[in-house]
Amino acid sequence: MFKRNIEIELQKWAVNPYRKPLMLRGARQVGKTTVVKSFAKQFDNYLFVNLEKSSAKQLMESSDDVKKLLPLLFLYCNTARKDGRTLLFIDEIQQSPHTVSLLRYFYEELPEIYVIAAGSLLETMLDKHISVPVGRVEFMAMHPCSFTEFLTATDNGQYREVLTDPTLTMPFHQELMQLYNMYALIGGMPEVVARYATDYDIVSLSAIYNQLLNAYKNDVEKYVKTGTQSAVIRYILEEGWAYSGQNITFGGFAGSSYKARETGEAFRTLSKAMLLELAYPVTQTILPVTSDLKKSPKLFWFDTGLVNYSAGIQREYLLSKDLMDTWRGAAAEQIVAQELCALSHDAGSKLNYWMRNKRGSSAEVDFIWVQEGRIIPIEVKGGHNAHLKSIHQFMDETDHDIAVRIWSGQYSMDKVTTLEKKDFWLINLPFYMISELPGIIVHLT
Questions:
Q1: Cβ atoms within 10 A of the Cβ of 100, count?
Q2: pLDDT computed for residue 386 by the predictor
Q3: What's the pLDDT score for residue 1?
Q4: Which class is domain 6-141?
Q5: Where are the domains positioned within the chain?
Q6: Which of 287-302 are b and which e, b meaning 16 or more Cβ less than 10 Å from the residue's Cβ?
Q7: CB atoms closer than 10 angstroms to residue 399
């Protein structure tokens, strides 16, 4: 396997003197267990317990005294304790609410032990069947592989340093766009990326996509208790991929007869499971950001490769000359949404888009990005700067001078003037440089 960017965040967590037990959140099969096992190589002692095993669950539930439990864990893992740091990784922790409650005692009574917990169905259990010890646990979100991780996995890691300096990307623009288009086609699921990096055979990936999709469908009964909710979620997992990048309504979604309340609850459950993102509009151009939950959200799935496979558009990807034109532009918005999510490991971060709050106006900006106390508009669009009318309207209403256009062209920065005579900087960002967006904004401010 290949190194994941989140390991840098895990290292920051580990050196923080005020760290708390960490709950690693993310959809099934995004690589949580693999990344923790890789991270564990930095520790002198590593204890791994999987609570899907009855013996491990029984052990963790045998005592409330974590100081007495620790030597039993070393015995269970058949590991002799060495001097130095100890990492305890509790996988599938949702199997034992009692073990979740133990995390507070590790924090209070054994702060020297590094504790990470994860679980494939943890997201849907939180707040419903499991009570997390508030103030005694911290969270970190993990997403499918980003483009920079794809570069590492496919032995193209030399380009990662090129991306950090926009002026260096220009001679490599065509190569980087070709690599990005392939990444946008196959997606970022670690098993898919690893298989592609080994065989470079797109056809062979179909079996993995099928396995992943079946695993998510088989999880449905574990998400909910009622048969109706199970049926709605299953329907969304079968039919919803083709609606990626579109504004959706819950009532009658995808031609179904399901009511808005039933479908809305199902979508929220899948959102908690981090399988999809409902991006709601905001109407303000200065902080704070407040989602308008009464408006129609845009649907984005967590992985573009699964979208392309399930929606049957892989062939269109291969034949398309420009990502901007693929699938009526929805493919570009889907991959940008995925990359923006990957920029943050904050478990509470959400995607939003901007909609102008003015009667008779239909202005809309694809995404917003909040940084340095600013709401920055992001449009996924080619063409001349003057055609970015929604960004111009946004910039007339905001209190800063930075906007972003993501496209298939080369990196550049233009000074643009709106019809209201406001000057602003437009960052023309190639798809392959989305990972550098935070750094570019910091440099400008």
A1: 25
A2: 66
A3: 76
A4: alpha beta
A5: 6-141, 147-444
A6: eeeebeeeeebbbbbb
A7: 10
